[in-house]
Design brief:
One of its GO terms (cellular component) is plasma membrane. It is a multi-pass membrane protein. It is found in: Cell membrane. Belongs to the AzlC family. Pfam families: AzlC. The structure is a single chain. This protein is an all-alpha fold. The protein folds into 2 domains: 157 residues, no CATH class; 47 residues. The chain has 11 helices and no strands. Helix 1 runs parallel beside helix 3 and helix 2 packs antiparallel against helix 8. The longest helix is centred in the first third of the chain and has 26 residues. The protein is globular and about 55 Å long. The chain starts with a helix and ends with a helix.
């Protein structure tokens, strides 16, 4: 129950982003059942937005699968960061935690680690499942109401996902109060992301920026 309660502050973000995702998926031509399956099986906001965009522009199946795969590779990094706190659990329980881990639940879990120095399995399940069911409901709500919204960009819904991440980033920076370090890490991520995106691809740029910037931040923290 404490995991459920700790998830409540993120629910508004899930509702707004999930609602926007449902609308965009509907306008891309997906059925209610397809949107439901997408939110149940993929369960990744950025991937679902990109999926809907590529479907609406006639993207190839291979291209869609590859893009979604690279976009979701960040979950490997998030899972690796939390895995030391669940080493005592079985592989099945670890898998149950991992498949429902999102950017937002990772952020809440990171805050819990900073506060108490540990994570509890039942707390994590409460956190993850609350976010999961809320996301599915928000997607379906957007899908049902999406028939009356034919132009999501008119209402700024295409910016819903970046807006949420910006909000999470600002809150994290304010909580950490390590402004110089965060600025250096942020500039590093931007530089690497832009360079890789220009010369290789945007998907690779996201992963490269994450790895390089996180490494730079870790090195600076250990030297200080």
């Amino acid at each position: 129950m404490r995991g459920v309660k700790d998830c409540v502050p993120t629910l508004l973000g899930y509702l707004s982003i999930g609602f926007a995702a449902g609308i965009i998926e509907k306008t891309a031509g997906l059925s209610i059942m397809e949107i439901g399956l997408l939110s149940i099986l993929v369960y990744a906001g950025s991937a679902q937005f990109i999926f809907a965009g590529m479907v609406s522009t006639g993207g190839s199946l291979v291209g869609i699968i590859t893009t979604v795969f690279f976009i979701n590779l960040r979950h490997l990094l998030m899972s690796a960061a939390l895995s030391p706190y669940f080493r005592q659990l079985s592989s099945v329980k670890n898998a149950m935690i991992g498949v429902l881990l999102t950017d937002e639940t990772f952020g809440v879990a990171s805050s819990e680690v900073a506060r108490s120095g540990r994570l509890n399995n039942s707390w994590m399940q409460g956190l993850n499942l609350t976010a999961y069911f809320n996301w599915i409901a928000a997607n379906l709500a957007g899908a049902y109401l999406g028939v009356w919204i034919t132009d999501p960009e008119k209402f700024g819904l295409d910016f819903a996902l970046p807006a949420m991440f910006i909000g999470l980033l600002v809150l994290q920076i304010m909580h950490r109060k390590k402004y110089v370090l965060d600025v250096v890490v942020g500039l590093t991520a931007i530089l690497v992301g832009v360079v890789c995106g220009f010369f290789i691809s945007k998907s690779v740029g996201v992963i490269a920026a994450t790895i390089v910037a996180a490494s730079v931040g870790t090195v600076i923290e250990r030297w200080r």
